[in-house]
Amino acid sequence: MDEFKIENMLDLTKTIAKELFNGYVYPWEVLPEIGDFIKKIGPTLDPEVYEKREGDVYIAKSAEVFPSAYIKGPAIIGPDTQVRHCAFIRGNAIVGSNCVVGNSVELKNVILFDNVQTPHYNYVGDSILGYKAHMGAGSITSNVKSDKTLVCVKNGNTVLETGLKKFGAILGNNVEIGCNSVLNPGSVIGKGSRVYPLSMVRGCVKGDSIYKKSSEIVEIKM
């Protein structure tokens, strides 16, 4: 499981939440701490860069937030980010710089690293999207199992208990998710990988690979 440790999946220089990951091994371990972390660092943000709004919401002055978007705190919206028409940010959300939160996108308990794009009709809950990750139109994270049991991370015969009832997906740096794909609870996609459109992903996908279907995952040829 070394490939899916924090240092091997995520570029911590590309998020305001770098400090949050200190002392943890796997990215999903920080999910329960996002809200408290925002409340901690929010008051320390530069008032020349960020505007504080009611309910522990901090929005960069260079960000573009459409009038129809709804943002519930605690939340941080980074510089030069777009929050487009009818976006719904439900709280405990850290959105980095140069991100896109698009039309009718819903976010909840998430960290979006810098330059992440969730542009069209995405649901991202209890998840972390690494630097330059991109979710194609209609792709979503499913964050609760149908039987409501705790989510495990599975990589082949290796199973890690997370202790989390709600856990969507972890995307490494530069991951591309194809349109209308579903990432099942506990999905972990290694950096640089691509997922075909209309995929149903469960478990771990190694980095620098192409997920065509569960029985066909191929290495990207450099």
From TrEMBL:
Listed SUPFAM superfamilies: Trimeric LpxA-like enzymes
InterPro entries membership: GlmU-like (IPR050065), GMPPB_C (IPR056729), Trimer_LpxA-like_sf (IPR011004)
Keywords (A to Z) from UniProt: Acyltransferase, Transferase
Highest taxon of the lineage: Bacteria
Domain Mannose-1-phosphate guanyltransferase C-terminal residues, every copy: 71-182
GO molecular function, one term: acyltransferase activity
Protein name in UniProt: Transferase hexapeptide (Six repeat-containing protein)
Taxonomic classification: Bacteria, Bacillati, Bacillota, Clostridia, Lachnospirales
